[in-house]
Automatic annotation (TrEMBL):
One of its GO terms (cellular component) is plasma membrane. It comes from Rynchops niger (Black skimmer). The gene is Cpne7. Residues 307-506 form the VWFA domain. This is CPNE7 protein. Belongs to the copine family.
Length: 558
């Protein structure tokens, strides 16, 4: 495991493959930093810390920017990203003092901010206030963190350029040209995408082919303007401008196959001064290859929300909730297994759902007013809106509904799977990767309606949803393993196979002595793969990153 990744010491947890899903690049800038220096402005530097086993560990630090209260750091922090963990980050800004390096004394501390990797990835751009010790605001200081997934697995393009008959800028030899490509963003600012190597002493250079991600090249927008500049290299850093041209990724794509695209490399000054000026050479795109491979992060960063539904088993086999032996007993000092499982999985999912509202359903109980058995009731008893505010809202609804219902049976889960599937089917019709549904079923026994459940799972495997089943208590769950298609392919009673494996089943008892994060890791480890499989099968690309407004704040720190 890379040191830059928060995680418990590796738990001996069953079947928990911890694949690094992606690496994420974080770019940091600050505004309105406090001025700690008497004679000139602060010289800021940012430290990135990650929480590991409750301790904050420094992962990396930025360069020091001299005398600047609104620094934009060139340093790019790279962190491993795991969907199935809450990875806590802390950014600390210090005023640095030359040779002494970064002091970590209180009087050099310009402020800190905490968040999770999941929050930054889901929002792509997070701006939060900086806080001093004891929760005091550091004046008006803010820190902005922008995340981009590292290219390589999010669709990339391979480009091969050459130039012909470039202007000669050197007296005693020929120019030493290199090419830079800039992406022009909506605010007209330019982002350097790529800089080629220098080809020495050559007016018709052929540069090495290179790969860039589509996100980095054009923010996935084919019509976005690109500015390409050719320079004559100078070892003292004073490169001579040869010429430039503007293009788009759309235009570049004409170079696929046998075709080539070429542009006049223009120097605007010469165009005005010289009457017969044609160009300062031509640049040719010899070849372009597109590799479109999308990852889970592409979908999340493209604005795909994870909608979380929890379904709780209220059948009589759980035992009377007033009795301390019951699986539904509310112990003021220790959450029961239902609550532990709900919180462990829900806490991860909530970072990926912008409205933080979760559907919470119950099954297998007689419910007021008529005390008829229901297999898909809202535990907040609002038939029009089964959503609760955050994980805490689900916990409160669960606790307040227990005294009002009568535990009964049987253990039928097909109605709830079908209910979530109906919502997922509406979503599928939008033909966009905008919402994916996770259904967490918490049950104390083997399901009674196995045939209907198998049928419902086969139907659901064609929709944007995944199902996680956690077996609570000490029942024999052998028959439940059939639903988790790991051993073979789950089929409907008529023999129709699932399109993709969408069910993960785990008995809670295997995690009783492990930390709650181990359970979440195990049950959520498959989800990213399932999301990608579904959208790949449907050939839905990620929606393009919606850049947030600079002040899209997360809630204030914990």
């Amino acid at each position: 495991r890379a040191t830059a990744t928060m995680g418990e010491a590796t738990e001996p947890s069953p079947q928990a493959p911890l694949a690094v899903l992606s690496k994420v690049e974080l770019r940091v800038s600050c505004k309105h930093l406090l001025d700690r220096d008497t004679l000139n402005k602060s010289d800021p530097c940012v430290l990135l810390l990650m929480q590991s086993q409750g301790q904050w560990m420094e992962v990396d630090r930025s360069e020091v920017i001299k005398s600047n209260l609104n620094p934009v750091f060139a340093k790019i922090f790279t962190v491993d990203y795991y969907f199935e963990e809450v990875q806590k980050l802390r950014f600390e800004v210090y005023d640095s003092h030359g040779h002494a390096g970064v002091g970590t004394h209180d009087d050099d501390f310009l402020g800190g901010m905490e968040c999770t990797v999941g929050q930054i990835v889901a929002q792509k751009r997070v701006t939060k206030p900086l806080f001093l010790k004891y929760g005091k605001f550091a004046g008006k200081s803010t820190i902005t963190v922008i995340s981009e997934e590292i290219s390589g697995n999010n669709g990339y393009v391979e480009l091969a350029f050459r130039a012909k008959k470039l202007d000669d800028k050197d007296l005693f030899s020929k120019s030493d040209p290199f090419l830079e490509i800039y992406r022009i963003d909506d605010d007209r600012s330019e982002q350097l995408v790529y800089r080629t190597e220098v080809v020495k002493n050559n007016l018709s250079p052929i540069w090495e082919p290179f790969k860039v991600s589509l996100n980095s090249l054009c923010s996935c927008e084919e019509k976005r303007k690109l500015r390409c500049v050719v320079w004559d290299y100078d070892s003292r850093g004073k490169h001579d401008f040869i010429g430039e041209f503007f293009t788009t990724f759309e235009e570049m794509q004409k170079a696929m196959g046998e075709n080539k695209v070429q542009w006049d490399c223009m120097n605007p000054k010469y165009k005005i001064k010289k009457r017969n000026y044609k160009n300062s050479g031509v640049v040719v795109l010899l070849d372009l290859k597109i590799h479109r491979v999308y990852s889970f992060l592409d979908y999340i960063m493209g604005g795909c929300q994870i909608h979380f539904t929890v379904a709780i088993d209220f059948t009589a086999s759980n035992g009377d909730p007033r009795n301390s032996c019951s699986l539904h007993y509310i112990n003021p000092y220790q959450p029961n297994e239902y609550l532990k499982a709900l919180v462990a999985v829900g806490e991860i999912c909530q970072d990926y759902d912008s409205d933080k509202k979760f559907s919470a359903l119950g099954f297998g109980a007689r419910i007021p007013p008529k005390y008829e058995v229901s297999h898909d009731f809202a535990i907040n008893f609002n038939p029009d809106n089964d959503e609760c505010e955050g994980i805490q809202g689900v916990v409160e609804s669960y606790q307040s509904c227990l005294p009002k219902i009568q535990l009964y049976g049987p253990t039928n889960v097909a109605p709830i799977i079908s209910k979530v599937a109906r919502v997922a089917a509406d979503e599928e019709r939008t033909k966009e990767a905008s919402q994916y549904f996770i259904l967490l079923i918490l049950t104390d026994g083997v399901v009674t309606d196995m045939a209907d459940t198998r049928e419902a799972i086969v139907r659901a495997s064609y929709l944007p949803m995944s199902i996680i089943i956690v077996g609570v208590g000490n029942a024999d769950f052998t028959d439940m393993q059939i639903l988790d298609g790991d051993d073979g392919i789950l089929r409907s009673p008529k023999g129709e196979p699932v399109l993709r494996d969408i069910v993960q089943f785990v008995p809670f008892r295997e995690f009783k002595n492990a930390s709650p994060t181990a359970l979440a890791k195990c049950v959520l480890a498959e989800v990213p793969k399932q999301v990608v499989e579904y959208y790949s099968y449907k050939a839905f690309p990620p929606r393009c990153p919606q850049t947030e407004t600079p002040d899209s704040n997360l809630s204030s720190p914990q």
